[in-house]
Amino acid sequence: MELMGKFFITGGIKTITGLHIGGQRETLDIGGLDNPVIRDGRKRIYIPGSSLKGKIRSLLERKYGTKDEEGKAKNDGKPCACGTCTICKIFGPHSDKVKEPARVIVRDCDLLNETKTEIKSENIIDRVSGKALHPRSTERVTSGSVFKFEIIFNIYKEEDKELIKRFIEGMKLLEDDYLGGSGSRGYGKVKFEKMSLFYKPKEYYEGDEDKKMEKRDIPDIADLETKLNEFEFS
């Protein structure tokens, strides 16, 4: 399958509520933090590309990819492995035996602005006594934090534009769902903002930098698909 070019979606992910994507505790101090946020080797907070990609895939599979043509659950609730459906073409099949190439690459998302974390204390309430049980503390990135994201699509044919549209649908679903953990408790509401689109055909990588197509700036996710239709992949 010959590569035609690469299509880019870049921008910011803004936290509307506190966000928790878990890391590992470095110590087991008594009274220490139970659930820290993930940090890189330089102690910087970030959103792993695997977390963003996995959540969008999960949301799309819940809508499209977890049932066969007869409406029966397939693959025992695991990520799809058929290699032929839209989900497999976008993200790659969840199988080493199927060789359909994944179209999408999702980079780790670095923090753009100065931010703080907060400690959210939680517990379980005994329904009979009304007492708080099993207290735990969770670290969250505060609302208003902005992370830089970059999503890349490998384009093999003109029809791959429809796969990008499906991924954009997953981004919209994510805005009305949650990213990270404890979403049912109010965590993880995010918004994509200040986005840009651009396309690099294969000639660009062969040394013809004039082939880089004009960049489009997108203020809101609702305009993504409209601007996408302005690009021709050939």
Would you kindly provide a written description of the structure presented here, covering whatever features stand out?
By secondary structure, this protein is of the alpha+beta class. The chain has one domain. Helices cover 21% and strands 27% of the residues. It contains 5 helices and 9 strands. It has helices at residues 49-65, 86-91, 160-175, 202-205, 224-228, and strands spanning 5-15, 46-47, 104-106, 109-111, 117-125, 132-141, 146-155, 190-201, 216-218. Strands 1, 2, 3, 4, 7, 8 and 9 form a 7-stranded antiparallel β-sheet that branches. Strands 5-6 form a two-stranded antiparallel ribbon. β5 (117-125) and β6 (132-141) form a beta hairpin. α1 packs across α3. It is globular, with a radius of gyration of 20 Å. The two termini are 14 Å apart. The model is unreliable at 26-32 (pLDDT under 50).
Describe the secondary structure blueprint for this structure.
Elements: E1 5-15, E2 46-47, H1 49-65, H2 86-91, E3 104-106, E4 109-111, E5 117-125, E6 132-141, E7 146-155, H3 160-175, E8 190-201, H4 202-205, E9 216-218, H5 224-228
Antiparallel strand pairs: 1-7, 1-8, 2-4, 3-7, 4-7, 5-6, 8-9
Helix pairs in contact: 1-3
Summary keywords:
single chain, two-stranded antiparallel ribbon, about 230 residues
| Share in β-strands | 25-35%
SSE sequence, one letter per element:
EEHHEEEEEHEHEH
Query: How many structural domains can be distinguished in the coordinates?
Result: 1
What does the largest sheet look like?
7 strands, antiparallel
